[in-house]
Amino acid sequence: MDRRDFIKKSAMAVAAVAATSLLNSPVMAAVNEYINNDNTNKTMKKILILNGSSRRNGYTSALVDAFTEGAKSNGNEVKEHFIHGMKVNYCLGCDMCMKTQKGCVQKTDDMNTIYGDLTWADVIVFASPEYWGTFTAELKTVIDRMFGWFNLDTNGGARKDTALLMTARGNDYSMALDQYHIFTKYLEWKDLGTVLGRGKVDEARRLGESIK
């Protein structure tokens, strides 16, 4: 072997050893972990939860917390409005939102914050304990006021995905489901699923995880 071949083969051997060392190094392991766990190329969903419970740490909020945990595990962004702590006026039934397509005439209550997040969100989640067979007054008031948002000239016909989280003392959710399905059918929103019942936190977490 002449000197030139010896130098060439030696350089190739050194390069191979260096490459192997680099591939097995902690730095490369960290790079591979970052690539495998990187969510930047995933489609992140923006999720708005409208929580109609009056109890911040009750059964319904437990479902909300578990759902949020599952949804965030996929890199989704989640906002929650705890309606009981907000000032949301009743719908006036004046139909001005429909006539003018300029939104609700009530401009000073907290519904105006919710309007902005309705436009922002890809997914709307309704959460409520069951009162007299259906949603709480807090959540129903927000749903009534959503009519003004839906009739904005910029939002009319906006398509969203939606889900429902509910708890009750019993097991009959038929009235609430009827109202939910009528609402989603009218808006032509896609139902992603429902979780009905106290303590079903694992089911709520799985529903959150399914949103990608």
Distance between the termini: 61 Å
At the fourth level of CATH, the homologous superfamily of the largest domain is: Flavodoxin domain
- In terms of DSSP E residues, the strand content is 15-25%
For the largest beta sheet, what order do the strands appear in spatially? 2-1-3-4-5
Biggest sheet statistics: 5 strands, parallel
Counting helices, strands and paired strands, the structural category is alpha/beta
Report the CATH C-level class of the largest domain.
Answer: Alpha Beta
Secondary-structure element sequence? HHEHEHHEHEHEH
Number of structurally distinct domains: 2
Poorly predicted spans: none
Q: And the CATH topology of the largest domain?
A: Rossmann fold
Mean pLDDT: 86
Radius of gyration: 26 Å
If classified by CATH, what would the architecture of the largest domain be? 3-Layer(aba) Sandwich
> Helix count?
8
Number of beta-strand segments: 5
Q: Note the overall shape.
A: globular
- The residue fraction in helices comes out at 40-55%
